[in-house]
Amino acid sequence: MISLTDGTTTIELPGDIQWVNEFDWSDIEQQQEYSIAGNLIVQQGVKLAGRPINLQSGQGSWVMRSVVLQLQALYNSAANLTLSFWGTDYTVAFKRPDGFSAKEVTRLANPGSEHNYTINLAFIEVTTE
């Protein structure tokens, strides 16, 4: 199960939505430089926040317009959110300015609340301290 909540509103996302950059992150940050004597100096530490989490609709992973409107309302707030992704919770904020987009599956002049869209959601993991 995949959901997004601000503590008041909970939005269920499609179970087949894809976390496209799940394995593009390392908890360790490393900097390398050479000393004046030519020795390699390596500094590294554990990152406390900032992990990007990008969720995208696949070919058949659609959401209704009513859900798109709820997502847009969350995007237009500054609240930290809880993303539940298959049993693991992440405290996230939308990545600005490109953290939310929705595209109609079939273009209609007057789409109703059940009209289908594909979505792209871009978050960054944040700390609550």
Descriptive notes:
The protein has one helix and eleven strands. With 129 residues, it is mainly β. It has one domain. Strands 1, 2, 3, 6, 7, 8, 9, 10 and 11 form a nine-stranded antiparallel β-sheet that branches. The model has no long low-confidence stretch (mean pLDDT 92).
Classify the beta-strand content into a percent band: 35-45%
How many domain units? 1
The structure class reads: mainly beta
Count the beta strands: 11
Main sheet, how many strands, which sense, barrel? 9 strands, antiparallel
Low-confidence stretches: none
**Percentage of residues in helical conformation:** under 10%
Straight-line N-to-C gap: 27 Å
- Order of helix and strand elements from N to C terminus: EEEEEEEHEEEE
Number of helices: 1
Mean pLDDT: 92
Query: What spatial form do the alpha-carbon principal axes imply?
Result: elongated
Q: Topology, please?
A:
Elements: E1 2-5, E2 10-13, E3 18-19, E4 28-34, E5 40-46, E6 52-56, E7 63-64, H1 65-75, E8 81-85, E9 88-94, E10 100-104, E11 116-125
What can be said about this structure in brief?
By secondary structure, the chain is mostly beta strands.
Keywords:
129 residues; mainly beta; two-stranded antiparallel ribbon; 1 helix; elongated
